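Title: [Solved] Chlorophyll synthase ChlG 3D structure

Original question kept below for reference.
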Amino acid sequence: MATPAPSAVVELLKPITWFAPMWAFGCGVISSGQAPSGQWFVIAAGVVLAGPLVCATSQAANDWFDRHVDAINEPNRPIPSGRIPGRWGLYLAAGWTILSLVVAAMLGPWILGAALFGLVLAWIYSAPPLRLKRNGWWGNSAVALCYEGLPWFTGAAVMAASMPDRRVLLVALLYSVGAHGIMTLNDFKSVEGDRAMGLRSLPVQLGSDRAARFACLVMALPQVVVVALLFHWERTWHAGLVAALLAGQLALMLHFLKAPRSRAAWYNGTGTTLYVLGMLASAFALRPLVQGLAP
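Solution (posted by the thread starter after getting help):
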């Protein structure tokens, strides 16, 4: 049996997608209020688990079960192009799942539980019979939770060795809700193939213009709530910074909404950058709250 080239395997695992959960894990570590001294190995391993292992597993599984859609939308991807031959895509997804669980088990029960939950979501998102991605409402919710809320929770929990502070959980949840809009942006590139294969992404269900407006609204509203919460918790400077980053996103959204199909990738690289910077600012705002140092 032919074997895939290492370059094709790396492309299948999509390193560019690892950034979001690795960043969210780091935000969780910061927001925990715990000093990192003596835990650098656990932190580094958690970052690797969030990105090159669990996220990479989800990418391999998704490309395997999406190979027929990709043959229409993106035929140059490793599986439809034949650079990942036979059933190697499935084997790689299964092998990365096992490797992820082994590493997670070595890092303790909190990380193992979170990794197991994330891997289950990754598989049911792509694989039949559930295949959550067939409907953009469910599929985008699952991915948003895995990319933002779950790694944020994991980073905070592993540092505290307990359930994170309720304020940490609330902010992580809000950024997960906002990430639903980011996932909708990713669907604009595959409207024709999704429609042909019966995948009801939000651009397919709502049309491009309505889906774009909805994505912007879903991204913006949770950040408004975060700003209000930070003001309520007397983290004034952090609240102002998050508000300024949101204002920048709103300005970029106006440009995106004029031509959502052609500008979705552009907004993903600009507005989403401001979004994740707001996550980091919020994590630093939470740190003294959790430590009990802030009023």
